[in-house]
């Protein structure tokens, strides 16, 4: 009887960790997407002249810092290739911001947002993700 109880407790703990991980990764990705969306909006407003590139860079760096804060956790919860892809896209986006290349910044931001959105969707318990 004790073995069955211990097995059930271990199963419940594993399930609780999976549920926590899913919700936590989705929340981190949502916050990162919000910050990247802010950077993208600021870059679009640059053509009008209301916003400087520094505003775009600040929002992008906030998103990168937010992502980097959870990088070790992502090593446990996500596939390494996809986390590495997001990290390299952040590096490319940073270069576009340093070079003040608005068009490449917008394209890089869209690619990065797509990669983060994909990670967020992978955490959903759907048939595609389970199989």
Name the features.
131 residues, mainly alpha, elongated
Concise structural overview:
The protein is mainly alpha-helical and 131 residues long. The chain has six helices and no strands.
What does this molecule look like?
- The protein has helices at residues 2-45, 53-69, 71-77, 80-99, 102-122, 127-130.
- The chain is mostly helical and 131 residues long.
- The model has no long low-confidence stretch (mean pLDDT 87).
- Would you tell me the structural class of the helices and strands? mainly alpha
Tertiary shape: elongated
How many helices? The count is 6
Helix content: over 70%
Strand content: under 5%
Report the sheet with the most strands, covering strand number, pairing sense and barrel closure: none
Residue runs with pLDDT of under 50 for 5 or more positions? none
Please state the CA-atom Rg, rounded to the nearest Å.
19 Å
The N- and C-terminal alpha carbons lie at a distance of 33 Å
**Average pLDDT level:** 87
Extended strand count:
0
Order of helices and strands: HHHHHH
Please specify the SSE layout and strand pairing.
Layout (H helix, E strand, L loop, with lengths): L1 H44 L7 H17 L1 H7 L2 H20 L2 H21 L4 H4 L1
